[in-house]
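User: Teach me something about this protein's shape.
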Amino acid sequence: MEEECVCKEKRIHEEEVKHVKKKEISLETNRSLAEMFKVFADENRLRIIYSLLNEELCVCDLCELLNLNQSAVSHQLQTLKASKLVKYRKDGKQVYYTLEDEHVDAILRMALAHINEEKSKI
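Assistant: First, the predicted structure itself:
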C-alpha cells in the first residue's frame, strides 16, 4: 500500500507544478483555514453546529439536546462565535444562537454528503 504513494520515476511535471503554484493560497489564508478546521474537529462543537442547522436554539435548548451542562455549552459557543461560525441574538434574558451564514451550513452538509457517499461504497 505504501508503495502506491511513491514515485517510481523521479520526474517533476513542471507545467502542472507551475499551474498549482499560481493558484496557491497565502500562508496567512492557509493558517486561517487550518484554524477553522480545528474548530470543526471537536465533537461537541460539531454537535452544536449540527443542532443549529435547521433551528435557532438557546443555551438551555442545546444543553438538553446534547446532555451537556451550561458551562460546557457556553464554552463551546464562545469558541464558535470567535471563529465566526455562529451568531447570536438576545430576546430579553434569552440568548438564541444560529449559524453565522449559509457557508457554515454548506460546509457541514458537504462533509456529511461525503461521509455518506463513502459509507454507501462499502
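Now, about its shape. The chain has one domain: 13-121. The longest strand covers residues 86-91. If you'd like, I can walk through any region in more detail.
User: That's plenty for now, thanks!
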